[in-house]
Amino acid sequence: MTTLLLAYCVPCSGNLVTAERIRSFLESGGHRCIRKCISDFDGCKQLLEFIRNNDIRCIMGINAYRTGHLLRDCPVPFGLVFGGTDLNESTAIPESMDLMTATVNRARFLVCFSKEIKQQALKLWPHVVDKIHIQPQGVCTYATSSSCPSDILAPYRAAEFASCSCGCTDDLNDSTKVFLLVCGLRPVKDPIYLLQVFSEWHKDDSRLLLIVVGPEMNHDYARKVKDEICRCVGILLLPPIPQTDLHTLMLRSFAVVNSSVSEGMSGAILEAMCLGVPVIARNIAGNAAIITHKETGLLFNSPQEFVSEAKCLLGDAELRKTITAKAQDYVNTHHSGKAEKQTYCRLISSVLLQ
């Protein structure tokens, strides 16, 4: 018996990281599991053929909207993991909401990363309360030792998406203060939000560098990001890099930044917290669910507040020490990979035994 794990798996994206982590947990828990991207299937007919050829007895879909068009009428029992954009963005579109409602109604189980996401789901579908489970994302990090960010970035500089024209990103050294923004280039992640204010700050302090790393997930928007960065100073945009190098770059960064309009639960934030790197994040519900301001990270409500909080962190070594220690304790307590593995193995077993 085989379980199919279905998600929108753009290379080096957060969805792919989550899907691969869950797949590995299921495999190590004794379940044969195949991970596939929704783009691997042209439609339900092709999915059904894959199901027949691979003895698929259960399916887990990540993101109710993205997987819904394949799962809504699927004859194999399935469960859903809410991702973030499905509840935060897709519910505002009537056709998307209809698709998700039909899919949610047929799902055997529903997983939310937090109680806040569960509350969102129950406002939309109060009748599914008995099949909703809360399971925070687990965290796995793979950082290695490296002398400075320039060593990590060297293999990727030739493939850089964009950088400012002043040359300030060419000579990184131990005095460089790297702020790292990990995100796919799409509107919901809003990487443009901080570019102008960071560029102005860099003019006053040339040690500062904002590195944006992530895949192009919306071509038109990615073009806007690149054009904006080319008009700025102190900013470098790189394509996605392997997790080991990404986590090593995190470890060598002064802080990890999040500027999203909405989030389910940011894997990059949790990884930074696990690695002991301060997080400065936009004050949205998904981020506030895992960050307590000035205890486990810093939250900002505007670009100007971002600069203010970042300056505070730069000038207060004790604050940095305190929030990183508390953030590590928080992740170790609430985002255990062991607990995540137990939950997903239990849910899949319950479906297979029915």
Explained architecture:
The protein has 354 residues and is α/β, with parallel strands linked by helices. 43% of the residues lie in helices and 16% in strands. It has helices spanning 14-28, 44-53, 68-71, 85-88, 94-106, 115-124, 149-153, 195-204, 219-230, 243-251, 267-275, 285-288, 303-315, 317-334, 337-352, and strands spanning 2-7, 32-37, 56-62, 78-81, 110-112, 132-134, 162-163, 177-182, 208-213, 235-238, 255-258, 279-282, 298-300. The protein has a 7-stranded mixed beta sheet with strand order 7-10-9-8-11-12-13, with helices on both faces. Strands 2-1-3-4-5-6 form a 6-stranded parallel beta sheet, with helices on both faces. Strand 9 (208-213), helix 9 and strand 10 form a beta-alpha-beta unit. Helix 11 crosses helix 14. It starts with a strand and ends with a helix. The mean pLDDT is 91.
Topology:
Blueprint (H helix, E strand, L loop, with lengths): L1 E6 L6 H15 L3 E6 L6 H10 L2 E7 L5 H4 L6 E4 L3 H4 L5 H13 L3 E3 L2 H10 L7 E3 L14 H5 L8 E2 L13 E6 L12 H10 L3 E6 L5 H12 L4 E4 L4 H9 L3 E4 L8 H9 L3 E4 L2 H4 L9 E3 L2 H13 L1 H18 L2 H16 L2
Parallel strand pairs: 1-2, 1-3, 3-4, 4-5, 5-6, 8-9, 8-11, 9-10, 11-12, 12-13
Antiparallel strand pairs: 7-10
Helix pairs in contact: 11-14
